[in-house]
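Following up on my earlier thread - several people asked me to post the actual chain instead of describing it. Fair enough. Here it is, all 366 residues.
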Amino acid sequence: MSAARPLSALRTIAAVAALPLLLTACGYGSEAKSDEKKVAAEGEKLSADAVRLGYFPNLTHATALVGHQEGIFQKELGGTQLKVSTFNAGPSEIEALNAGSIDIGFIGPSPSINGYTKSKGTNLRIIGGSASGGVKLVVNPDKIKTLDDVKGKRIATPQLGNTQDVAFLNWASEKGWKVDPQSGKGDVSVLRTDNKVTPDAYKSGSIDGAWVPEPTASKLVSEGAKVLLDESDLWPDKKFVITNIIVSQKFLKDHPDVVEAVLRGSVKTNAWINANPDKAKASANAKLKELSGKPLGDKVINSAWPSIQFTDDPLAATLQAQADHAVKAGLLEKPDLKGIYDLTALNKVLKATGKPEVSDAGLGAK
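Reply from S.P.:
Thanks for posting it. Predicted structure:
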């Protein structure tokens, strides 16, 4: 986004802690699925016998998908066993972290902020980045040809108050349109629709478009929808956090060597993904097939993959902006995010690999 564009134009992604619904970056359900496959760990065991890792079976979590599929995490952990659980929504992953069912998780910005603020800063830290982008406004081209044509139409978002829901509400507000955030009624109708059924809703004609993450956006495109807006275009440098890495504060304190090993695995995975995009795409799809029983079609994954940037940088400034947007929307009381980040281990790993350190935007641990 150019400097000349009003700051309010950045009110796209938002985090919502005041809603009764906990937030999720994707909204694909809420059940956790455990990976029971035993991986033979080799090498010296670290300070923990095992580390329990959580992530979503979603392309914006491809760092976790690929790092798991290729054994990169396990290699860095040596004799410490990697145990994986997959989740379909941010709230359930935060609950698992709070309950001690997982130690480290890949998760979106909204549940990260929500979990941190609800615990008054006692439950988690963000320790690294994973992905940016991968969110689009896709529409029926027969009904919507321009951005102004969205007015009066029915647009799906994944969940009331989730990251994409607030992003769309804020974008609509920037257009000067009035929409009640709770009911979704107004100058444009917002229909909260589970991403699993959004493609069918589009095919049936019950929605005219959707503001959704990948691969849902590309699934709609495969049904004839067109991309009207890539949310990355609304952010400076076209970057905003969509997935980061969190850890329970207790696990971070008790097992810093394990946390560092997982971060080494993440950094090495992102480097491999960016150096081998076709192999990485195939690896992510293979893991998705294992987890869901069905891989994404070539048309879908080839459309979705290029819109996601895999990065070690948690893009901390954009997390703060997302929280600010939610406050301005009246959906979140102003949170104190000081301490939500601890990038010490990540920057140690980056320095060791000759990469530049990343910033916590003044939100580092107290």
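Confidence is low (pLDDT under 50) at residues 1-31, 34-41. That should answer part of your original question.
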